[in-house]
Amino acid sequence: MPITKGQIVFDGEFTQSQIREAKEEIKSEEEQKKQFEKLEGLVERSQDVLFRVKTVFPFDLFPDCLCIDENKVSIISKTFMGTEHVRSVLIGDITDVTVQTTPFLSTLEIIDSSNVRNPIYIKVDNLKTKDAVRARRIIQGLIAVKQSKIDISGLEHRELVSKLEKLGEAKGGE
């Protein structure tokens, strides 16, 4: 009985071990294709910024930018014209996100625990309070989704942000 997979046809002329090897090679190629497609999807989704906010001018002469996507949080700090420092933290490495609020401006603090012994505290000052609170909610929602291993790749942008905000909302406080 011939075994067919794609365009490869095995007839009775091959040994069982050759057939097994060919099947394994086909499986390996299919697995590589799946991994490549997964990578392509990851790259595409990482280009989709869920939330972006800048610090408030004139309190910050060179406004910094906080960008959140499904996989990471990026902080782009501008120190002088044309100079910037970009720091990205994977969602899985974030252990806590806090907001210190005042009536007008707030500080968002992210704890990067990629090095468990020496966690890094990252502060973004001079954010509008509503933006800082919204960023915290989205990041907390992403942390919860990542820890629960939920696939969110099928959700539309608006729906995803809405669900993440609801998931990351502090009960009784915000």
Notes on the protein architecture:
With 174 residues, the chain is of the alpha+beta class. It folds into two domains: 3-45; 49-168, PH-domain like (Roll), CATH 2.30.29.30. 36% of the residues lie in helices and 32% in strands. It has a four-stranded antiparallel β-sheet with strand order 3-4-5-6, covered by helices on one side. It has a three-stranded antiparallel β-sheet with strand order 7-8-9, with helices on one face. Strands 1-2 form a two-stranded antiparallel ribbon. α2 packs across α3. The longest helix is centred in the first third of the chain and has 31 residues, at 16-46. The chain is elongated. Residues 12-39 form a coiled coil. Keywords: Coiled coil. It comes from Candidatus Daviesbacteria bacterium GW2011_GWB1_36_5. This is YokE-like PH domain-containing protein.
